[in-house]
Amino acid sequence: MAKAEQPGNEGAFFGAKVRALRRRENLSQAELARRLGVSASYLNLIESNRRPLPAALLIKIAQVCNVDLRDFTSDEDARLISDLYEIFADLLFESHELKSPDIRELAVTQPTTARAVVTLYGAYQQARILSEQLAASISHGAEAADTDAVDRLRLPTEQVSEFLQHHMNYFADLEAGAEELWQWAGLEADDLYSGLLQYLSKEHGVTVRVLRWGEERGTLRRYDPQRRLLTLSELLPTRSRTFQVAHQVALMAMEPVLSRMATDPMLSSDASRTLLRVALANYFAGAVLMPYQPFLQAAQQERYDIDVIGRRFRVSFEQVCHRLTSLRRPGAEGVPFHMIRTDIAGNISKRFSASGIRFARFSGACPKWNVFTAFMTPGMVRTQVARMPDGVAYFSVARTIHKDSGGYRSQQPVQAISLGCQVEHARELIYSDGVDLENLEAATPVGITCRLCEHLDCEQRAFPSLRAPLQIDENVRTISLYTSRRVPQRPPVVLRPSEPPAVPEED
Fold first, then answer.
1. How many CB atoms lie within 10 A of CB 262?
2. To the nearest 5 percent, what fractions of the chain are helix, strand and coil?
3. Residue 446 to residue 386: CA distance in whole angstroms
4. What is the DSSP letter of 491?
5. Are 452 and 90 in contact (CB under 8 A)?
6. What's the pTM?
7. Which residues, in sequence order, are CB contacts of 372 under 8 Å at separation 6+?
8. For the chain, which domains are there?
9. CA atoms within 13 A on the CB side of 275
10. What are 164-190's pLDDT values in tens digits?
């Protein structure tokens, strides 16, 4: 790849966007220029990214083309470009010499095609895994292929994750439904569990029974529609039982809303649609246990102290983190957080970003994230100031969590959660007290994935960077086999909303 535009150079973004909007409106350059009150030659320079787009002219274009100003710099565009950068960093495309402007042009002018490329590459990755599984099966003398692996090509988890990200993990209809439930059922914070049980019984004829672990091992919640019976495991603590009951309420009381959302074209399989219903029911349950306005007020008053908030609303550390990412109500927003959950092997099971940070989708994540080092100090909150390759700095907290499981003979699953925001919001969090947020040169350098990371002096680098072709000198031993002997200067620290990550440069 060739040299990428520096962060803040938005001409490339806007030029392609203006041209796409003009074509959408079936306008010639001369006609659009006339409506804008500028010369056609000047508009041509803007569309070709040879002139910046002034703010006043940007407003006029938005009015003429009837678009929202946010469409010019939408977070969705940035995520799409970031995904394309990661995809084209694959050695598969090395011979094509794709350049940064080409990738931006594809994402901005042909977003549907770009998203199709992302979908196709995801399927390619899964097919490659499937072929390896089939080869292994054949080599071990298996008589039949793993047919379940075919279903994994549909990527239901990825589709649902993208759906939630597209909606910024905020759903007004579910929030309204949760607030109406509180009023209709007369719920009380001090006895929420009993109130939900009474509502299920009175409005839906559902009985709730707590089963001993030995009666149905491995099942934490089961609903029998024929008997109208909801069974919960005795291993669930009270907060989890309340959550599961609220989940069942969502499946019944909010069924029309869930079904409507599940028809979204972003979901291409029955598995993804069902998984979305589960995710949205969980969202509703969280909104019931942690009503929006009281929760936002508590979060701001306690400076986002997760443990304090959790005890006030009788919920877990993870439930609080989830809820904090959903505080995106227009006019009543909380801190824009990102959240990631992973296991000790590095498998990312949940990710969401309202902070602007980008997570790897098709390759391994950076091991320098505090979400991975949290496993070294179980149960303790770890803080981190991290600097991405584009210069944007983030503050995050991470801690391990234990999932509800069986007894002595059951494996005790351990995961880690990281919740973070841009440094400019860090002082709103109690965890930033005593942390030097001004000395961002001392921040931990973190990348998206090794192939795209510009931190060439990283001792944990697992793959060579596209910025520095692999050069092996048998007479020299560096801190890593893949580190460069020529380390570039660090990028400047940026204190503004995150922009699409820079594309690695060629030497």
1. 17
2. 50, 10, 40
3. 6
4. P
5. no
6. 0.71
7. 342, 346, 365, 416
8. 11-109 (1.10.260.40), 172-319 (1.10.10.2910), 333-442 (3.30.450)
9. 18
10. 988 999 999 999 999 999 999 999 999
